[in-house]
């Protein structure tokens, strides 16, 4: 497993507000593609304002479709999906999503599901620990819009996950989400940091001396110029 981690804290304004933007999901996906080219451990957490109901976040592979389209990396895609499914089954993690917010799926919810499928991410809500088989509502006790979304490898690292009861001292409408991760850190020495570096600390008491030496009375600098400077 890679020892690099990418954590994203997300807030997407409600889809009917004046601050809403359907491009938010595209921007998140682009950021993931940019930063995660060599990272397998990804976690997104926050208020997505996306109601996803019981929609599946796991890609259902149709091998016949791969053959018809002659997709070059079909085996790689199928292997990645198979590893995810097998890992869930082995760990007793439900493949099916659970949510108390069963009825309504909004446009943002559909976009979030597509984002997860394209980026191989899965919801922790309704699958882990105290929230397993539940998917407790997180907003006004009426909807689930706050999520912890993980890459498959990250599921093994989650030690606790729970949506607490609503507490008005913490939020106006949202429940507190609690989770903990167990990550083993290996100490290593960056060879580049072994180089001898010279650092200069600014001394405000010598500001006048610096000005006198480096600037002429007309305000032009008196610093030596490079020979090739024009």
Based on secondary structure, the structural category is alpha+beta
What is the element string, with H for helices and E for strands? EHEHHHEEEEH
Main sheet characteristics: 4 strands, mixed
Give the proportion of residues in helices: 25-40%
> What fraction strand?
5-15%
Organism: Mytilus edulis (Blue mussel)
InterPro entries: Endo/exonu/phosph_ase_sf
Protein name: Endonuclease/exonuclease/phosphatase domain-containing protein
Describe the model.
With 230 residues, the chain is an alpha+beta fold. Helices cover 26% and strands 14% of the residues. The chain contains 5 helices and 6 strands, in the order βαβαααββββα. The strands form 2 sheets. The chain has a 4-stranded mixed sheet with strand order 1-2-4-3, with no helix packed on it. Helix 1 (23-35) runs parallel beside helix 4 (107-119). The model has no long low-confidence stretch (mean pLDDT 81).
């Amino acid at each position: 497993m890679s020892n690099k981690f990418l954590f994203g804290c997300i807030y997407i304004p409600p889809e009917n507000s004046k601050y809403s933007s359907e491009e938010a999901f595209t921007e998140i996906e682009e950021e993931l593609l940019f930063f995660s080219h060599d990272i397998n451990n990804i976690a997104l957490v926050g208020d997505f304002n996306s109601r996803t109901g019981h929609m599946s976040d796991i890609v259902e592979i149709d091998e016949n479709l791969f053959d018809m389209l002659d997709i070059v990396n079909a085996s790689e895609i199928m292997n990645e999906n198979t590893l995810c499914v097998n890992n869930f089954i082995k760990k007793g993690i439900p493949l099916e999503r659970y949510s108390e917010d069963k009825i309504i799926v909004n446009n943002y919810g559909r976009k979030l599901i597509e984002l997860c499928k394209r980026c191989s991410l899965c919801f922790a809500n309704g699958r882990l620990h105290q929230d397993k088989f539940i998917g407790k509502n997180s907003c006004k006790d009426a909807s689930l819009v706050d999520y912890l979304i993980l890459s498959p490898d990250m599921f093994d690292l989650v030690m606790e996950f729970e949506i607490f009861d609503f507490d008005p001292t913490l939020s106006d409408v949202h429940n507190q989400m609690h989770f903990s991760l167990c990550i083993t850190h290996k100490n290593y020495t960056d060879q580049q940091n072994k180089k001898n570096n010279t650092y200069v600390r600014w001394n405000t008491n010598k500001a006048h001396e610096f000005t006198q030496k480096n600037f002429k009375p007309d305000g032009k600098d008196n610093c030596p110029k490079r020979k090739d400077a024009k």
